[in-house]
Give the backbone structure.
Amino acid sequence: MKSVRGNARTPVLPPITCASDKRFLISIEEFIKTEVEKLSDAGQFDAEQQCIIYGQAFDKVIEYCTDYKGLLASIKKEYDEFIDAIKQGEIDATHLYAKLKTLSSEPTTLMYYRKRAAELADRIDIINKDSIKIESQLQKLLDGKRVKTPQVEETGPLQKLINPSALIPGMTKEDSLNIDALTKYQKHLEDKRRSLNTDIKTKYVPIQRKNELDVTLSLAVQEREEVESINRKLMESYRKKRVIADTILSWSRSDKSVTLHKTLGQMIAKENELKDNTASTNVFDDVDPGKSVEAESLLEYVERFNELFVSGQYKNAAVYAAQSPRGILRNTETMERFKAAIVGKDQVHPLLMFFEALMESSSFAKHPVNAALTLEGVTCALSYDRIELVVHWVTQQRITFSEALGDVIWDYGEKETRHKVTCLALGQLIYRKCSLLRKTALCMCLQGQIQGALDYTYQTKRFLLDDYLFLLKECPTAELIHGLTREWNDNPAALSVGQVMLSLIYTDYKEYGFEMLQNIHSCGDIALDHVILNDVVCTPEGWVEIAEECSNNNYRILSDKIMSIVISQDGVVEIPSKDEDAKIMEHVFM
């Protein structure tokens, strides 16, 4: 009996019998498998990328399951907000930790530099003493050589140096016999001499200046040591006075069973014992030696980047800047350098290379590119018609979303109509991440996702009347008008028929409104009566205005029907014309 019951038990999940559902499930599995393999081959697959892939698969499931779209979308929204909160918390924690670490290391770094300056000053003194000693010995040797060397031997080498038969250094024998070559070489030597004279005046200073700076540095270091010594004494004096004050305050609040003199004696004895047991610490004990090494590494990194940039290796320089430690080169200053670079027309601009490397490295840095660089990068990519780069950056969430970014992509889609559908999809994703409800719904409507847009507007519960009128004016389609003027999932209609008509009659899309009224009128005489009489938003004057506009556009039957319904309402009287007014007044006066 148990086996029979076990076989007859209903499975937890019903089998998928529909062929389209099976195909959709297979396509989703293939999509996940393909994306995981791509990122794994590129060495970029991690928990964050895995979450993004499954989030995209979840979006496809939401779009496919129309019956449960609202519920699934709400669930995904909660998960997305939770994940975003976790990511933001990690970023804030990292920034705060880095800031705290920097602030805590500033005093120790300063003390280390001061110690290093003192050591270098001592080395300079030693080098100066050795230099003076060597100069004195050399001067003695020169003086002794001048005394021993005859005058004839001293002039001999000079005569040999100006020997006209010798070749001129740097010239061939043929050039030394050519007057033009000699003139050119003479001009080269004169230019070189002028350059050397200029360098002597501008690039070099006398050795006495160095000695003056050494003396100034030595005095500054000595003054600093004296001030530090005074500061330590003052701090020790303050500490002792503070301990005594705290002891007296504590004694005054006690029951005074022990005398103040004895209490102070115990406190002084305890302080002396603590001082004896505590080892003396050097001011530089807390200096982190790794700080100087890190600073030198950063400096070498920047110098290497400058070498690559100056030599024209822009691609390598871009990768070097994007992967810089602590992000020291991931800033607008570096971007301006790449922007100012000049290359040939057929070559890829270095600025685009920089943004490509920057966006690719953002997944390794575990945080997206900031909003300013994101806007510049997307603008640069679109200026070179590289829409595929923008799609990759946005879908992989390697950038910071903002309204300005969505507007740039929107404007590009309006300008390049062949990419308009892609730009609308990207704009929808960006605006939704930024909680820009109106623009998100508009992107969905322009893509033909009217039902999805209506679901979105009702789920957010923050859509106002102006937002619905904005959608109606920007995308006045028959499907949207129908959706806005009827109940939606037990919710009242967003707009009344009168509101829609008043919004459309003075635009180029008023035919949609007339078509809507014609359809309502074709459903029977009672249908139009029900719509007008139950419209609590549009006033009778508004319906009179609608009727007049229908008459002006050759919809006379529709106009007469609307007027008859409006006049039949209680308290509404048709206003007579001016001629009829004159007749009435004439009768009264007679």
